[in-house]
Each structure stands twice: as C-alpha cells, then as structure tokens.
Specification:
heterodimer; A: about 90 residues; alpha+beta; about 15% helix; B: about 240 residues; alpha/beta; Rossmann fold; 8 strands
Chain lengths: ~90, ~240
C-alpha cells in the first residue's frame, strides 16, 4: 500500500523537511494517523483532541476535496493526499 | 472611445491577440473595488492602474507603519502615519492619470459593505482577515459580480476566482471555517506574485480572454516553487451561494 501525503513547506520544520511522505491506511484518517505517528510534532499542529483535523485544514484526494467527513474517506494504493492550510493574510 | 495617447500608452497590450481596442475600451469603462491597500492590494492596484482600468475604488482603514514596507510597495517611508488609501491614490494617479482612483478610508462592515461596493463591476479580495473576506464573498454573490480571492502566508499563496451562481465561492472552499486573526509572517515577493495573478484574472474577466481560475484553488508554494491546482466543487448547501 503506497499513499503519499504532500504537505506545505510550512510544515517542513516538523518533518525534517520531508514534504512528500509515504503513509499507510485505508482511509484519510488512518493515513493522517500514520503521518503523525511518523512525525509526532505534527500532531499538535494538525489535529484536535479527538484526533480530527483542525478546521483550518482541508484535505484533497488526487486534487479533489475530501470534504465533508474527510477523515472517513477511503483511499487506495497510489493515491496522493494534499493537506492544505487555510490562510488569510493579505 | 480611446484617445490617441491611450492608444499609444496601451499599444503593447492592444496588440495581444483577442485583446484589441475593444478590450482596452472594456478596461476603461470598468469599475474595480479593491478591498485592502496592503500587501496584496498594492500589486493588484498597480497593475490594474497600469493596464488602464477606468476606476479603482480602494478601501482600507489602516495607516502606514514601518513594518508594512517590506511588502506594501505602494507605501514609502514618507507615508508612515498616513492613511494607506491616500498614499496609494497619490502613487496610482502619478502612475496613470487616466485612471480615476477613489480612496475610501473606512472599515468594511456588515452595515456598509453593499454601499461601499455600490456600482463596482467586481471585487478584489486583498483583505487580511477571514470575516471580511466572507462578507465580501456574500456581497459579491448578492450583487452577482465576480470575486477575486487571494491570500498569503510566508512564502505561500492561494488564489481563486468566483463567478456568482456559476462557480464555487469562498465559502464552498472553506465551509465557514475560521482561524484566529493574528500577525502573520510574509515576505513581499509572495503577495507580489499572488496579487499579480489576481490582477491577471480581473483583466481576463473584463476583456473576456482565456479561462478563469474558477472551481479550482491555486496553491503557490515559493519554497518548493510549485503551483498546484485543487478542484473545488460548488456546494449546493453553501450558506453563501447555495440553496440550503
């Protein structure tokens, strides 16, 4: 099972500057848990106390939004996930 | 009708296939609302003025501070302490005296947003906070005028164009999500890139050229030097543009 999560350069400080990270899982949620398992410092940045993504992030599977219930969305071998932070600066 | 001076001034863009004098006349008759005269508002306003947009209405309540000058290129040291919109208007009028610049030093609120936008043909979102971005998104939908979204953080940017009733809106993208308003990191080249893309979208829309950045979010990561596109679907239950 090979799924890649692409993260922004902003998070490079938590992942030794790895910005494309291979993960395992059958759902977005499982993949995200695998991601934060590999890089525990990401957990407090991405997830709330219940283990769900904070509202300030969107997940895309192969370029398409996973909203709503993104953590439950199934993924398959070869999929690419993007975790995108909501930004508001002008 | 374009004057001989305007024909000379805009000669290189009139030469673009599909643009022509007709396209230039469309720009001349357009009224653009630019929300924010900061990091994004500066390049947006500069390039729309240079292109010959007829009227730019720029709204911002802030005053120029020293810490703005790394990115807000319409403002200079001599402007510190003055209202951003007047600083911007002075430069833009010098850049292109043909453009009418309306400077409004007010805060955009629920109460005045519709009146401020008034008879403008489009809204450029160059704000620095989500509540006002959402407010302007709703205003654009109510008035059925396009909304050109841009945002920056550090070396990253986002851009999306909204055509009300036809394409996904800002709230289809973010689903009422909010983040605390706080001081954010940014270097001037990031809003320069993002603001120029917003201005490009405005010009394309007005002239009627190319494909707009609709139903897709452009994610710019300057540290990777990548632009990726993510598909955004119009949400039928969206509180702003749907029919919940």
């Amino acid at each position: 099972m090979s799924i890649n999560i692409e993260i922004s350069s902003i998070f490079g400080r938590y992942t030794n500057n790895q910005l494309v990270i291979p993960v395992k899982g059958n759902t977005v949620g499982e993949c995200v848990q695998d991601l934060v398992g590999q890089y525990p410092d990401l957990k407090k940045v991405l997830l709330n106390e219940k283990g769900n993504l904070l509202y300030s992030y969107e997940v895309y599977i192969n370029g398409k939004s996973a909203y709503p219930n993104e953590m439950a969305k199934p993924v398959k071998d070869g999929d690419k996930l993007n975790i995108v932070m909501l930004i508001q600066g002008g | 009708m374009l004057t001989s001076a305007e024909l000379e001034r805009y000669d290189r863009q009139i030469m673009i296939y599909g643009f022509g004098e007709e396209g230039q006349e469309k720009l001349k008759s357009a009224r653009a609302f630019i929300a924010g005269a900061g990091g994004l508002g500066s390049p947006v306003a500069i390039y729309l003025a240079a292109a010959g947009i007829g009227t730019l209405r720029i709204v911002d309540h802030d005053k120029v501070e020293l810490s703005n000058l790394n990115r807000q290129v319409l403002h200079w040291e001599e402007n510190i302490g003055g209202e951003k919109v007047y600083s911007a208007a002075t430069k833009l009028r010098k850049l292109n005296p043909n453009v009418k610049v309306e400077a409004v030093a007010e805060t955009i609120t629920e109460t005045n947003a519709s009146q401020l936008v008034a008879d403008c043909d489009l809204i450029v979102d160059a704000m620095d906070n989500l509540p006002t971005r959402y407010l302007l998104n709703r205003t654009a939908i109510e008035k059925e005028i396009p909304f050109f979204h841009g945002a920056v953080y550090g070396f990253e940017g986002r851009v999306m164009t909204v055509i009300p009733r036809k394409t996904a809106c800002l709230n289809c993208l973010y689903h009422d999500a909010n983040v605390p308003e706080e001081k954010f990191p940014v270097i001037g080249v990031t809003p320069a890139v993002v603001g120029c893309i917003q201005a490009t979208e405005v010009i394309k829309y007005l002239v009627g050229l190319g494909e707009l950045l609709t139903d897709r979010l452009l994610v710019y990561d300057a540290l990777k030097m990548t632009f990726i596109e993510l598909k955004v679907k119009k949400d039928p239950n969206c509180k702003h543009c749907g029919n919940p």
